[in-house]
Fold:
Amino acid sequence: MTVTAGLDVSAQLDADRRTEVPRHVAVIMDGNGRWAAKRGLPRTEGHRAGVSALRRIVRHCADRGVACLTLFSFSSENWKRPAAEVGFLMGLLERFVRRDLAEIHRQNVRVRMIGEREGLDRKILDLIEEGEALTRDNTGMTLVVAFNYGARNELARAMRRMSEDIAAGRLSACDVTERRIESYLDTACLPDPDLIIRTSGEQRLSNFLLWQAAYAEFYFPDTHWPDFDEEALDDAFAAYAARDRRFGGLSAKVAR
Ligand code: IPE
Ligand code: IPE
Ligand code: MG
Structure:
């Protein structure tokens, strides 16, 4: 009897946790190089395996009812890598869009890019814009691809546009509120991330969503990105569900 009751409780707990899925999940997909090194493979193989993980996670997030998934795929600082690796990553993104866009569209996912567009290869930009246009009216999960993205660059671009609007008289200094600043960011109209996952054990943001992460929960699994699977994501959701988010106030449990 006790055993049965215990099982019931844990089944209920599991069910509750399943329902407590973060609205916006953002992932720093790190560790492709280390995954490859561990296997004596070139770093590029790690990136290739990383794309398979990405496919799985997009599908699983959509299935779990995540409203918005942001994936950090190339940072504004990643240009510092050897030209051959950068070229490989660009080719990978291009092939991913070409091969997977139709399937993503079929899943009713809306695609949006955040990051600096200026200076990007025209061919890549055209592909990204094609993906955004094709999926614009989809009503399922929003997939935000952070590409050539750096939060300081995003903030600098936002400040520049805001200053231009003030100089042109379209905006006055007293209109510069938190909400207004947000409207100039690449993430305008997106909710703040609830959960930020960084794989591979590194515990830093590396210039990712600095403004938006103000009240995000962080999760740092040791798993390298190519090994991050559905089960690992469910573990992250369970850890998230157990957090007590207070936003500077009091715990809902205490306040009651
Ligand atoms: C993440 O894996 C992919 C990108 C940054 C594009 P890394 O390439 O950073 O892998 P590690 O950190 O060297 O293992
Ligand atoms: C952050 O990872 C960028 C992406 C995952 C795209 P990095 O591997 O570039 O970050 P650092 O250099 O370890 O901080
Ligand atoms: Mg890395």
In short: The two ends are 32 Å apart (CA to CA).
